[in-house]
Automatic annotation (TrEMBL):
This is Asl1-like glycosyl hydrolase catalytic domain-containing protein. Residues 1-26 form the signal peptide. Transmembrane segments: none annotated. The keyword Signal applies. InterPro entries: ASL1, Asl1_glyco_hydro_catalytic, GH.
Length: 304
């Protein structure tokens, strides 16, 4: 195994640890989603409303109504620290409903996390409800290329996408399964390429969805990954991409430098529809400080 691959697997391990540390809802929510502790699904939730005064709409598809930046969160209350920021326009929590309310300027984007019955049995109801309350995008299958996440073969994911995502094609923009930046025949963009092969044109995909974790000094590596993903999208007749988990590891100064470099690049990149720093939570390297206020990273991310 190359040194680069060793470092990538180490990053993956650190991510799993990080997720266990940041997920404060795991013990009180749906334990059927233990494969990813970022998922926060309560048993009794109803509508995935963005706010109590959300106005139902059946408007189809379309871009975001604000900036490209989003909030990947577990605690919905923390998203209010970014209310009315012109650069931030959407949020998601790896789940089918918001698990609380979001500021009225944020679009909640539901996710069909995997193909277990605990996810699929409620998907049509929850996705339809989200769309009626203004959601214009739907995400599918969280990191199916990773055994500890959705863990799906490309053919399984293709069949699942056709069954559970295709029916919403006329109502929302549909994202392909979110893949990592892992290297190998069954990881990352290689997995995604196999997914499109398995679809054989039957999956009504509007956009692709990628995750990137790496060193905060590796801005060129990140940009190359995004460009490669964009090329794969174009090859398969898909227009744009989302980066729904993005994190550069390193000290706060390095992370700030990373964001200062990539934020304007992402905002000006027509191939990128939206992106989210991992994550809107309290703690080092997150958008919120341990004291519960917007961190230095969050200030840069929110203010643009």
């Amino acid at each position: 195994m190359s040194v680069l691959n060793c470092l990538r697997y180490l990053m993956g391990f650190l991510l799993i640890v990080l997720r266990h540390q940041t997920s404060s809802l795991a013990s009180s929510t749906n334990l059927n989603f233990q494969k990813d502790t970022c998922v926060s699904v309560s048993q009794g939730a109803e509508n995935p409303s963005r706010s109590s005064d959300a106005i139902p709409t059946q408007e189809k598809k379309g871009g975001l109504t604000g900036g490209k930046r989003g909030l990947a969160y577990n605690e919905a209350s923390l998203t209010y620290l970014f209310a009315n920021q012109s650069t931030v326009s959407w949020g998601y929590n790896w789940a089918q409903f918001a698990n609380g309310s979001l500021p009225s300027n944020l679009e909640f984007i539901p996710t069909l996390w995997g193909l277990g019955e605990d996810a699929t049995s409620s998907w049509f109801t929850q996705a339809s409800s989200a769309i009626s309350y203004g959601s214009k995008h739907l995400f599918s299958f969280n990191e199916p290329d990773i055994a500890t996440q959705a863990n799906l073969a490309a053919s399984e994911a293709a069949d699942g996408f056709i069954q559970y995502m295709n029916p919403f094609h006329d109502q929302a923009e549909l994202a392909a399964p979110s893949v990592t930046n892992g290297l190998g025949d069954s990881l990352g963009l290689e997995w995604l390429s196999s997914f499109f092969d398995a679809c054989a044109g039957r999956c009504l995909v509007d956009t692709i969805n990628i995750h990137w974790y790496g060193s905060a000094v590796d801005t060129s590596g990140f940009q190359a990954f995004v460009s490669n993903a964009s090329a794969l999208a174009t090859e398969n007749g898909v227009g744009t991409l989302w980066i729904t988990e993005l994190r550069g590891f390193g000290g706060i100064d390095l992370q700030l430098q990373f964001l200062e470099t990539v934020l304007p690049w992402l905002d000006s990149n027509d191939d990128v529809s939206g992106y989210a720093w991992f994550m809107c939570a309290a703690g080092d390297g997150n958008l919120v400080s341990s004291s519960g206020v917007v961190s230095a990273l969050g200030q840069l991310y929110g203010d643009g």
